[in-house]
Amino acid sequence: MDKYTVLEELFSQYQIQYQREVPLKEYTTFKIGGNAAMMVIPDSREKFRRTIFECVQNNVDYFVLGKGSNLLVSDHGYDGVVICMGDQFQKIELIGEDKILCQAGASLASVCKFAFEHSLTGLEFAFGIPGSIGGAAYMNAGAYDGEMKDVIYRCEHVTTQGAFGIYDQGQLDFSYRHSAYTDSGYCITDVYLQLHKGDPQAIKARMMELLERRKTKQPLEYPSAGSTFKRPEGAYASALIEECGLKGKTIGGAQVSEKHSGFLINTGNASCQDVKDLIEYVQQVVFERTGFHLDCEVKWIGE
């Protein structure tokens, strides 16, 4: 009996919904990638925990999928279990006057709107960033002089042993595009935000200003994974790429955006290999000409 047949029996026993051979390109903003061997859609924290526990017990790789906005999936797919945080993991609630508790699958956009509706300021920078609040916490997402580390004070998670756990602020180990969760195997279930009371008109104005800036400067009309490279110390990735004359550089269906050179876009038929080749080409040229190494911000899964 192969490992997926074993998991099918276990998930059926625990009434955990699953599918086989699911095309992941339909679940990512890059619109690229092969199939997941199995996708699981747990509808409770306990089923989420059980899914991870059974994957670990049966030596099956797993990956938690939020909104798929910072993800590049192999053309050959993913030989493992993709755990999809569906509708049951999107609850947002006010706790106290200025704190918000979010389930990890909630979109950043919905959390930002919730904060605005309750006259809470501090999260405006994140409005327009695609993805889930869990994914944003995982990588300490940020923009326009704000980062998730500025507003998160606690996260709840499931460990690699399938147990529930909590990290408070001092344990979250936030740094640039990094947290204690990055590459740890621990999976965030809930995110706690500390915001501040503010003027709703000023909050809305700031949100709209940043959203308009994104629409003007970023290639939102094309599939992409957002900003492709981390900012190197002492420089900006997009400026270095442009300085090297790489704006518009194309390999297959992948292109360095002519609108914002920090974005690699799928012009319609890009493969994962096209994107990887273009990333490596950009890294090589920028390093040779400027001495800066560009680290990739996008997470890759699969072979």
Mean pLDDT across the residues is: 95
**Unreliable residue stretches:** none
CATH top level of the largest domain? Alpha Beta
Q: Which percent band covers the strand fraction?
A: 25-35%
Proportion in helices: 25-40%
Descriptive overview:
It is found in: Cytoplasm. The protein has seven helices and 19 strands. By secondary structure, it is of the alpha+beta class. The chain folds into three domains: 3-87, Uridine Diphospho-n-acetylenolpyruvylglucosamine Reductase, domain 2, CATH 3.30.43.10; 91-202, Uridine Diphospho-n-acetylenolpyruvylglucosamine Reductase, domain 3 (2-Layer Sandwich); 221-301, Uridine Diphospho-n-acetylenolpyruvylglucosamine Reductase, domain 1. The protein has a five-stranded antiparallel β-sheet. Strands 1-2-5-3 form a four-stranded mixed β-sheet, with helices on one face. The chain has a four-stranded antiparallel β-sheet with strand order 15-18-17-16. The two termini are 23 Å apart.
Summarize the structure.
The protein is α+β, with helices and mostly antiparallel strands. The chain has helices at about 5-15, 45-55, 110-115, 135-140, 200-215, 235-245, 270-290, and strands at about 15-25, 35-40, 60-65, 70-75, 80-85, 90-95, 100-105, 120, 140-145, 145, 150-160, 165-170, 185-195, 195, 225, 250, 255, 265, 300.
